[in-house]
Amino acid sequence: MHHDYPSDWDERRKRVYRRDNYACGNCGVRGGPRGTHQLEAHHIVPLAKGGTNDIENLRTLCYDCHTAIHNDSAYAPTRTDSRGSDGDLEELGPYSFLGAIVFSIMFVLTILVEMTALFWVGIVAIVVGVIADVCLEEKETGPGVTVERD
């Protein structure tokens, strides 16, 4: 165990898990006695930046989210705070906010790609329809015969 942790660290982290209802405060997966994910206690303000081991400075995270946050990853899964209220940016952390921005950009780009594909499908359908119409006219009237339309 790291030398900056108090002797009652195990009890503190278990109290944090209970307070947070054994759910990751970042993505919401369940751990503990009835869950399937490994939970960890995360310092909201890191010890290296003046944070404490007080319960109020700890939150429950699953292993994946905790690892992603400490590896400066913007790709940790995110959602609202597990206690049922919308978390503010400070509570959820900068990586959760950045992950939400990345997700939003990816969502918009996906929609744009799908709209572009539909546009080209529509153009191809119109061109095929015109070609088919011309071919049918030539079949009915013979090649090279011009038919005036109303």
Automatic annotation (TrEMBL):
<keyword id="KW-0255">Endonuclease</keyword>
<dbReference type="Pfam" id="PF01844">
    <property type="entry name" value="HNH"/>
</dbReference>
<feature type="transmembrane region" description="Helical">
    <location>
        <begin position="92"/>
        <end position="112"/>
    </location>
</feature>
<keyword id="KW-0378">Hydrolase</keyword>
<dbReference type="InterPro" id="IPR002711">
    <property type="entry name" value="HNH"/>
</dbReference>
<dbReference type="GO" id="GO:0008270">
    <property type="term" value="F:zinc ion binding"/>
</dbReference>
<keyword id="KW-0540">Nuclease</keyword>
<keyword id="KW-0472">Membrane</keyword>
<keyword id="KW-0812">Transmembrane</keyword>
<dbReference type="InterPro" id="IPR003615">
    <property type="entry name" value="HNH_nuc"/>
</dbReference>
<protein>
    <submittedName>
        <fullName>HNH endonuclease</fullName>
    </submittedName>
</protein>
<dbReference type="GO" id="GO:0004519">
    <property type="term" value="F:endonuclease activity"/>
</dbReference>
<keyword id="KW-1133">Transmembrane helix</keyword>
<dbReference type="GO" id="GO:0003676">
    <property type="term" value="F:nucleic acid binding"/>
</dbReference>
<feature type="domain" description="HNH nuclease">
    <location>
        <begin position="11"/>
        <end position="67"/>
    </location>
</feature>
